[in-house]
């Protein structure tokens, strides 16, 4: 495919440059990229000659991160809706849904194949909104905290910066997710409550008021903030170690395929850690959103501490590991597509 044809696939704001002259002569700049000023603050995609370039930490960079987050979270969470449906029902009614296999069997018998995707609409919209904020704000806060720390401390305390940046981003992301998550759980665990988001949202608001949509915000933060801190900090660390010890070629010399494979592997391993850390709060979210007027104390009394930590955990490890690996693969694939390096493994050139 000719470059002019490929360029038309990407919105113009995703490959804008810093100067007015360069934006007016974008095509010639790409055709003559070998002759570009060495001081230009643009970073090429890992594969030389791909042509696309996006300025790091520019509005276009954050726009690309936001779109990548929408694609990575919205699509993956929707794809695993059947697993999420079984997990939620195992958490809410363990006497009936005793195992993964029996859970699928019960849902297929009672609701049919179509019923396995119950709640897909609030899942798609909710996690797309969450992904936009999660990835977009993570990139922003990571840069912001690095600047506050200074160059030397940013390297020395990089893991703390990953943790702080991801936690800050997730606080915002959960505000976007919470109303959709509340409706999703109710639709998935109470057959007959609603067909989906369109009738479930007004029915939920009528029953519990608009404030009821945020009844689970605190346990949602309790689930998602540790999850996201582990997801981003462990991913960055795992990827760095893979390039350091397992990949014989420096990252900037690796093919796009190799780099994206590292992203998926790092994401999968990070996802396993995420599932274990955030699982007790995940059980709480499901319990509180399913029962009107329920409290955290009610959940602890009914499920017990051990139940909060382990109920539905094997399925969630499989689901979150696969989910997180796929998310990092999609996110970094989109970054490469628009002309950005993959995440982690090597710090980009310093911005001057």
TrEMBL record:
It is a multi-pass membrane protein. InterPro entries: MCP_dom_sf, MCP_transmembrane, SLC25A3/Pic2/Mir1-like. Its main location: mitochondrion. It is found in: Mitochondrion inner membrane. One of its GO terms (molecular function) is phosphate transmembrane transporter activity. GO terms for biological process: mitochondrial phosphate ion transmembrane transport; phosphate ion transmembrane transport; response to osmotic stress. The keyword Glycosyltransferase does not apply. Keywords: Membrane, Mitochondrion, Mitochondrion inner membrane, Repeat, Transit peptide, Transmembrane, Transmembrane helix, Transport. Solcar repeats lie at residues 60-144, 157-241. GO terms for cellular component: mitochondrial inner membrane. SUPFAM superfamilies: Mitochondrial carrier (SSF103506). Belongs to the mitochondrial carrier (TC 2.A.29) family. Transport of phosphate groups from the cytosol to the mitochondrial matrix. Mediates salt stress tolerance through an ATP-dependent pathway and via modulation of the gibberellin metabolism. This is Mitochondrial phosphate transporter.
């Amino acid at each position: 495919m000719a470059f002019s044809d490929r360029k038309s696939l990407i919105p113009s704001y995703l490959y804008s440059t810093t100067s007015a002259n360069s934006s007016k002569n974008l095509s010639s700049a790409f055709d003559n990229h070998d002759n570009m000023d060495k001081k230009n603050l643009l970073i090429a995609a890992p594969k030389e000659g791909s042509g696309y370039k996006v300025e790091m930490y520019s509005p276009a960079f954050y726009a690309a991160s936001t779109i990548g987050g929408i694609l990575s979270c919205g699509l993956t969470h929707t794809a695993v809706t059947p697993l999420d449906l079984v997990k939620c029902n195992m958490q809410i009614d363990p006497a009936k849904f005793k195992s993964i296999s029996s859970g699928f069997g019960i849902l297929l018998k009672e609701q049919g194949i179509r019923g396995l995707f119950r709640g897909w609409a609030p899942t798609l919209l909710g996690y797309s909104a969450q992904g936009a904020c999660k990835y977009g704000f993570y990139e922003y806060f990571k840069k912001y905290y690095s600047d506050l720390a200074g160059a030397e401390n940013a390297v020395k305390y990089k893991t703390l910066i990953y943790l702080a940046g991801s936690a800050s981003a997730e606080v915002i992301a959960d505000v976007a997710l919470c109303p959709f998550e509340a409706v999703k759980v109710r639709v998935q665990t109470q057959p007959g409550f609603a067909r989906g988001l369109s009738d479930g949202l007004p029915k939920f608001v009528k029953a519990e008021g608009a404030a009821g949509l945020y009844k689970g915000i605190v346990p949602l933060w309790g689930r998602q903030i540790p999850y996201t801190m582990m997801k981003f900090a462990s991913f960055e660390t795992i990827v760095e170690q893979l390039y350091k010890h397992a990949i014989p070629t420096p990252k900037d010399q690796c093919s796009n395929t190799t780099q994206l494979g590292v992203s998926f592997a790092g994401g999968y391993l990070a996802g396993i850690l995420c599932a274990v850390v955030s699982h007790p709060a995940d059980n709480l979210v499901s319990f509180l959103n399913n029962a009107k007027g329920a409290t955290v104390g009610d959940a602890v009394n009914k499920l017990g501490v051990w139940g909060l930590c382990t109920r539905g955990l094997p399925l969630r490890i499989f689901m979150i590991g696969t989910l997180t690996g796929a998310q990092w693969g999609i996110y970094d694939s989109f970054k490469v597509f628009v002309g950005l390096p993959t995440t982690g493994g090597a710090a980009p050139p310093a911005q001057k």
